[in-house]
Write a structure and sequence with these properties.
By secondary structure, the chain is of the alpha+beta class. 30% of the residues lie in helices and 24% in strands.
């Protein structure tokens, strides 16, 4: 199982959105970060399964993140 970077953003109304820079076009939106994380996991799994079923390459995880104090 591969691990993909997922970036979360909170909207002004408190809702959350998420996407992965490694797999374009896969997004999730929810009321909480936890809900959005679960929806994103499901969306990534479904997208990867569809790629495999279509005989297409699954992108390799290429992005990583780290907080650095400055």
């Amino acid at each position: 199982m591969k691990e993909y970077l997922v970036v979360f953003e909170q909207a002004e109304d408190g809702a959350w959105g998420a996407g992965s820079p490694d797999i374009e076009g896969v997004y999730a939106f929810g009321a909480t970060r936890e809900e959005t994380a679960e929806l994103m996991r499901e969306a990534l799994a479904a997208h990867i399964e569809a790629l495999r079923e279509a005989g297409l390459d699954v992108p390799e995880p290429m992005h990583h993140a780290q907080y650095i104090a400055a």
